[in-house]
Amino acid sequence: MRAGRPLAVAFWTFAGLAALAAAWQWGAVAFGPFVLPTLPETGRAMVALVASGKAGPALLATILHALGGCVAGGVVGLVVGIAGGLALPVGAMSRPVFTALLGTPPIAWVVLSLLWFGPGGMAAGVTVAVTAAPIVFLAALQGVRSRDAALMEMARLYRAPPLQRLTDLVLPTLADFLVPAIATALAFSFKVAVMAEVLSGADGVGGGIATARSHFDLPETMAWIVLAVAVLLVADGLLLAPLRGWRAAREGRALPVAAGG
C-alpha cells in the first residue's frame, strides 16, 4: 500500500497538470488570442526568452527578491512568535501588530517601499519580508502555545535544561504549524515579489511582464508567468521537501509508540 503511494501521487499530480493544460488550451481556442495564448505560442515565447538570455538573469533577480525577503521576514516572525508563545507579555503585545501587518494589502507596502527606497529591488524585498513575517509569526505563536503543558511541567520538575526543553518539547510541536506556514509564505513571496517588480520597475520576472505588457505581447507575458511558477515549484521541492520528509518520519515514529501505549 505504502510502496505504491509515491507512484499514485505522481500519477495524480500529472493528471492535475494535464487537466490544467487542457483547460488552458480550451480557453485559448474559445476566447481567442487577445484573452489567452495557446500552449504552443506560450512555449515558443518561453524558448525565445531562454535562448535570448533574458530569462536567466530575470529569474535570478526574482529568486533573490523572493527568498531574501522571505528569509528575512520569516526569521523575524519565527523569533518573535517563539518568544510570544513562551512569554505572555511578548505575545500579547506583538500579536495585534503582526495581525495588522497581515491585514495590510501588499500593494500598500509596495507604494511605501517605493517612497522610502525608490524604484529597484529593495522595494520588492521589503514588501516580501513584511508579507512573510506575520504568516510565520502566527504559526510559531500558535505552535508554541500548543505544546504539552504536562510535559513542560515534568521537564521543569526534573530540571531539564532550557535548550533541551526547546529541542525536545517545543520544536516538534512547532514543526506541525511551521511547515504549512513556511510553504504559504514561500508561495506568497514569489507572488508579491513579481507584483512589486511590475510596479517598481525592478529587474526580474515582474520587469519582463511589464515590458511584455507594454508591447501587448500576451504569449511572452504568459511565458514569464509560467517560468515564475516553475521556479516556485522547484524552490518548494528543494527547500520544503526535506522539512516535509522529516515531519512525516517523526509522525511515523510516533505512531507505534501511541499504538503501544
The CATH architecture category equals Orthogonal Bundle
Q: How is the main sheet built?
A: none
Morphology: globular
How many domains, as an integer? 1
Order of helices and strands: HHHHHHHHHH
Beta percentage is under 5%
CATH topology assignment = MetI-like fold
Give the radius of gyration: 22 Å
Number of helices: 10
Cα distance, first to last residue?
25 Å
Count the E strands.
Answer: 0
Helical fraction equals over 70%
Instruction: Kindly provide the name of the CATH class.
Output: Mainly Alpha
- State the fourth-level CATH superfamily: MetI-like
Structural class comes to mainly alpha
Low-confidence stretches: 255-261
Query: Quick check: average pLDDT?
Result: 84
Q: What does this protein structure show overall?
A:
Helices cover 87% and strands 0% of the residues. It is mainly alpha-helical. It is globular, with a radius of gyration of 22 Å. The two termini are 25 Å apart. Mean pLDDT is 84; it is low at 255-261.
Give the gist of this structure.
The chain has 261 residues and is mainly α. It has ten helices and no strands.
